[in-house]
Amino acid sequence: MQWLAGDAALREQIAAAVARVERDDGVEWVRKRDQRRRLARVPLADGRSLFVKHYLANDRHALRDAWKERLGLATAQREWRTLVRLRAAGLPVPAPLAHVRIASGEHVMVMEWIEGVPLATALASRVQRRPLLAALAALVRKLHDAGWVHRDLHGENVLVAGAAPVLIDLQAARRSWSEAARIRDLGQLDHSLQQILSRGDRVRLRAAALGAARPLDAGGRARVRAVGDASLAHARAHALSRSRRSLRAGRRFQAFECAGGRGLVSRAVDPAAVIALFAAPAQTVGYEVRRYRAAPSDLWRGSAARRAWTIAHALLASDLACITPIAFLEWRRFGVVVHSALVVADDCDARAAIAPGALEELLARLARAGFDARGLDASGVDLCQRDGRTCPRVVALEELRFPARPRSAPSAAPR
Question: In this structure, which topology does domain 117-239 adopt according to CATH?
Fold first, then answer.
């Protein structure tokens, strides 16, 4: 083990902790199966714990990573410097204890373990919510006033220890005095809290983090609205990223072949069940196979099943309910798709027709989220009873388009 930085007095203790992580000896894995890094909690004999972050080498970008390390720009090097500087500025971040290089050449960083709860869990308490939001806004403002932006600021990267929020996962943080960068930071945070907080609480959080005095003047309202625009832009970018990643085999999906077709299937489903569905569709309950013939536009737009598959995952990433996608398949001849199929599951407890008013509200939400829903009508939407909650659900995935092509000026709807 090569010691790169840290408290030399802890060298023996750090070496033992890193060795335990390498051997997987009595450690608690926070994240183990990841292409970029492994995260572990290492308990010590005195009752304390250490947090160990192991940055994994990437063979695909070995040359690029070697140059970044030579220039001092490797992820571990940047995060170590950031933690040291933020601690010196008095910001609540985990204390950096050691930065080492192990025998494989990979970097390992050791920090103090923060005994806290996720931000979402702490915000569930109505008693603590207002003071916690005030403390969170003050923390974000202090970070920005110190000349830093987090660049990955969302609820999962904030822990609440006692009643105080703590920033974690600072590998993307950068020095910046840019107002636009600060607005983007707050937009990410606003988006991550959209399902937890009311619009009023989010507006109060935005204003306090911006240092805008209330009642808001015209300039303050413009800045708060800019955070809302950034939140919406982040939501659309997140949905687009999820839709693109849904076309790659990985942690959530696996390559799949059935009846001569090739595609992807969700890892949450046994592929044998999908194969059985094609073999005997009449005997399978709860699943539906949607088959599509190829059209000339498929040459540049992709097959209909592929488009519906990506639309479904974009809807789910946008917190909009839709029929559950299970798998998609394409049959090709001379490299050209001749027909395709989408497999969906209906996991709702009950279904009902959607009322006109609810349909208009759903269409407005789809438009704000960046979907083109001009082809969607009441027959393509229903009300779904799921887990005791009623929500509108998109069934006709084929009628949507994402991202929508801009048609006019942005809507002035509340953000």
Answer: Transferase(Phosphotransferase); domain 1 (1.10.510)
